[in-house]
Design brief:
The complex is a heterodimer of chains A (104) and B (110). Chain A is mainly alpha-helical. Chain A contains 5 helices and no strands. The chains are: A mainly alpha (104), B mainly alpha (110). Chain B: This is Spore coat protein.
C-alpha cells in the first residue's frame, strides 16, 4: 500500500498512482481468496441440501450464490494483461540505474 | 426462574427432539456464520494490501457484502431463537461510564 502524499507532489512524479498491474502480492491474495470463496459456496450449497427449515435453506443458498459471484469478480482480476500494462509504465531513474549496474 | 436480563426468542427453528451426533439446522447455519466470519477476517487483510485502486474497490465491496451476509445469518439465528443475548446490569454500566468519564483530564482536545 502506498503512503499518502500531497496532490502537488503527486502530479510531478513519473507514476502518479499504482498502475492496474497485478503484483506478486496481489496474485497471492487473489489465489487465497479464490480458494476460500470456492470452498464457501460449495459448503453453503451442500448445507442448503441438508437442512429441513425452508427459511434456513434459503439463507444458505443466498450466501452460496453470493460467494460464487465473488469468485467470478476475483477471477476477472487474474485475466489481465500485465505485460501490456507494464510496457506503459515510464522507466524511473532508479530502474535505469539498476539496469546499468546489472550490465556492468 | 428465567434470567431477567436475557433477550431471546422462543425456539421456532426445526431441531430434533432428541439431539444426536448428526448436524442439525442450527449447526449448519452456525457453521455457515463461522465461514463468513473467517472470510471477513481474511479478506480484510487482502483489502488492506491491495496494490491498485480497482482491485482495492472490488475487494472492499466483497468484504462489505460478506459482512452483510454474516449479519443476515446472525439475524436469522436470533429470530429462530438460536441466539441468546444478555443485558448488562445497570450498575455495571454506571460504573464503567463513571470510570471512563474520569479520564477526560487526559483529553488533548477541549
Amino acid at each position: 500500500m502506498p503512503a499518502t502524499i500531497s496532490s502537488t507532489l503527486q502530479s510531478q512524479v513519473p507514476i502518479p498512482q499504482p498502475p492496474r498491474v497485478i503484483t506478486t502480492k496481489d496474485c497471492s491474495y487473489l489465489k487465497d481468496a479464490l480458494s476460500w470463496e470456492l470452498l464457501a459456496f460449495k459448503k453453503f450449497h451442500f448445507y442448503a441440501q441438508q437442512v429441513t427449515d425452508p427459511e434456513v435453506k434459503q439463507a444458505l443458498e443466498k450466501a452460496g450464490q453470493m460467494h460464487q459471484q465473488h469468485y467470478q469478480k476475483l477471477l476477472a482480476h487474474l485475466q489481465v494483461n500485465n505485460t501490456a500494462a507494464m510496457a506503459t509504465i515510464p522507466q524511473t531513474q532508479m530502474q535505469s540505474q539498476q539496469q546499468q549496474n546489472q550490465a556492468q | 426462574m428465567p434470567n431477567q436480563n436475557q433477550i431471546a426468542n422462543p425456539h421456532t427453528g426445526q431441531l430434533p427432539q432428541v439431539k444426536g451426533p448428526q448436524m442439525n439446522d442450527r449447526d449448519f447455519l452456525n457453521d455457515g456464520l463461522a465461514t463468513c466470519k473467517y472470510l471477513t477476517d481474511s479478506l480484510n487483510v487482502a483489502v488492506r494490501e491491495a496494490s491498485h485502486q480497482q482491485l482495492y474497490a472490488d475487494m472492499l465491496q466483497i468484504l462489505t457484502q460478506t459482512h452483510q451476509s454474516a449479519r443476515e445469518m446472525y439475524d436469522l439465528m436470533f429470530r429462530k431463537g438460536w441466539y441468546k443475548l444478555e443485558a448488562e446490569e445497570q450498575q455495571k454500566l454506571q460504573q464503567a461510564h463513571q470510570q471512563f468519564s474520569g479520564y477526560s483530564t487526559q483529553f488533548p482536545y477541549h
